[in-house]
Amino acid sequence: MKALWLVSFRPIGKSKINDFFQNIFVDSILSLDRNITFSLTQFDEENVKEFVEQKKLKNYFINYPKEKLPLNKKYSNHIMLNNALDQYIENDYDHLICSSADIIVPNNFFDEISKIKK
Question: What is the pTM of this model?
Fold first, then answer.
């Protein structure tokens, strides 16, 4: 079972609370001991690349410059999804999962989604 997890991180090092929750999110996924790759489309967020490397996350990392976004936009779910769909199709994943980085993924997550019938 191969899963592609679509998520985007907030800047690292600007908010202890944000950093805390993003660490818990990543650690909860890593504890699942499954074949999970992160689809990370970032928008010039500081220190995220270093965070990903330090956590040794298997990932597709794309930085999309904020200056290319429409005026007054900080990110684009559309761009993130398009990148993830390309990665999903090209690499034959079983699951595409999208979430924020503010959740704790339960240990039985994949057991539960495997119960979902097509």
Answer: 0.92
Grade residue 113 by pLDDT with cuts at 50, 70 and 90. confident
CA distance 23 to 55: 9
DSSP 33-102: -SEEEEEEEESS-TTHHHHHHHHT--EEEEE--GGGSPTT-S--HHHHHHHHHHHHHHHT-SEEEE--SS
Which tokens belong to 81? 């999804």
Which helix (H) or strand (E) element contains residue 6? strand 2-7
In this structure, what are the phi and psi dihedrals at residue 52, rounded to the nearest 5 degrees? -65, -45
The label of the residue with tokens 């996350």 reads 57
Tens of pLDDT, residues 32-57: 989 999 999 999 999 999 999 999 99
